[in-house]
TrEMBL record:
Transmembrane segments: none annotated. The active site is at 190. GO terms for molecular function: peptidoglycan lytic transglycosylase activity. Residues 59-68 have a biased composition (Pro residues). The lineage of its organism: Bacteria, Pseudomonadati, Pseudomonadota, Gammaproteobacteria, Thiotrichales. Signal peptide: none annotated. This is Lytic murein transglycosylase B. It comes from Thiothrix unzii. Pfam families: SLT_2 (PF13406). The gene is mltB.
């Protein structure tokens, strides 16, 4: 996901499964298949009380120029009065950027302006999301990061999750060609096996980060756009989704664009419900498969480095481009075999740097979250779960 997950939550409070259950209920409540269901909140204007006549859709007021035009006099002309859409209220009523966004969603995707105004009028600023977005855990060294995820509770929880969902995991592994322990480990790292899927309202979090966090506002506005498209595809209101402060949803914490691109309807009930393991497990497997996972391929092994080898080390994810022979010639000695045609020398920085040789599958994990420490935590948790399950 590039830097897609580069700023997501790592210290997620322990929210209960009730969140997932609530969303699951909401999805069920909005399910198709209960007759010719209409979704007026997406494609039609809001209902007009009896006695009134429906108003034609208002055009979006064009945005005022952002800079003062050059003037031949020393006194610049007064800017034109700003006319905000009269249907927009609440915390974001006076945001020109939101007005632009509404216009774009109307022009490019055909969303009804009154629906969008009504939806955004109910959005409250998510102050906690603004606080959390500034302090991601990836800023820590590896020695501090690793113990967050490599805990006894998370290893045991992984074995339990594997045992509980063995038929689903077996089927997903067969269909998508992804090793089970990595599907389990991703769900373990992301949400403690579904215990902590996040209690931020995704619409509110993405609106807040899209319009109140200039540093990455473009990214969050794109995800907000994707959330509306996802909602229309899934035939639900945009406001029903809960997730992380950064808008990641379900057991595998998919952001809106990933939900649209990679989520699958594993139980074939017509909905892609990432709070349900029946859909979430094959969706994580699909994500790995589509990004190039090779079942049985090597992931990463520790390495001793001497001579000029350290100069080849990478501290950010890059597509593997070297061979084991090239690394050996440079003084890199992997401590075990690694089945991968192309490899990278990785350096996990800390008070004592650790060197690893990572294969193509390791790079696939970084497509889930573009961070070496994240991918290494997933790899080590996967190995620990597998060893515990099989008594290795
Ligand atoms: Ca489903």
């Amino acid at each position: 996901m590039g830097d897609v997950y580069g700023s997501r939550a790592w210290f997620k409070p322990a929210y209960s499964l009730a969140v997932g259950a609530l969303i699951g209920f909401s999805l069920v409540a909005c399910a198709p298949g209960q007759g010719p269901v209409q979704f007026p909140w997406v494609l039609q204007p809001p209902a007009v009380p009896s006695g009134q006549t429906s108003q034609p859709q208002r055009p979006v007021v064009p945005a005022p120029p952002r800079t003062t035009p050059p003037s031949t006099t020393s006194i610049p002309p007064a800017p034109p009065p700003v006319t905000y859409p009269p249907g927009l209220h609440g915390d974001y009523a006076n945001y020109p950027g939101l007005r632009d966004f509404i216009g774009k969603m109307n022009r490019e995707h055909g969303f009804n302006v009154a629906f969008l105004e009504q939806t955004f009028s109910g959005v409250k600023r998510d102050q906690a999301a603004l606080t959390k977005v500034g302090a991601p855990a990836e800023g820590q060294g590896w020695r501090a990061y690793r113990p967050i995820f490599l805990t006894e509770e998370r290893i045991r929880g992984g074995v339990d999750f594997w045992n509980r969902h063995a038929p689903l995991l077996d089927a997903a592994s067969r269909q998508y060609g992804v090793d089970i322990e990595y599907i389990v480990a991703i769900i373990g790292v992301e949400t403690q096996y579904g215990k902590n899927t996040g209690a931020h309202n995704v619409l509110q979090a993405l609106t807040t980060l899209g319009f109140d966090y200039p540093k990455r506002g473009d990214f969050y506005r794109k995800e907000l756009e994707q959330l509306f498209l996802l909602s229309r595809e899934e035939k639900v209101r945009p406001a029903i989704f809960n997730g992380s402060y950064a808008g990641a949803m379900g057991l595998g914490q998919f952001i809106s664009s990933s939900y649209r691109n990679y989520a699958v309807d594993g139980n074939r009930d017509g909905k892609r419900d990432l709070w349900n393991p029946q859909d979430a497990i094959p969706s994580v497997a699909n994500y790995f498969a589509r990004n190039g996972w090779k079942r049985g391929g090597g992931v990463a092994v520790p390495a001793a480095v001497s001579g000029g080898g350290a100069g080849l080390a990478e501290t950010t994810p890059k597509k593997p481009s070297r061979t084991l022979g090239e690394l050996a010639n440079a003084g890199v000695r992997p401590q075990a075999g690694l089945n991968s045609a192309r490899v990278s020398l990785l350096k996990l920085e800390g008070s004592t740097d650790e060197y690893w040789v990572g294969g193509e599958n390791f790079y696939v994990i970084t497509r889930y979250n573009a961070n070496l420490k994240y991918a290494m935590a997933v790899h080590q948790l996967a190995q620990a779960i597998r060893q515990r399950k099989f008594g290795l």
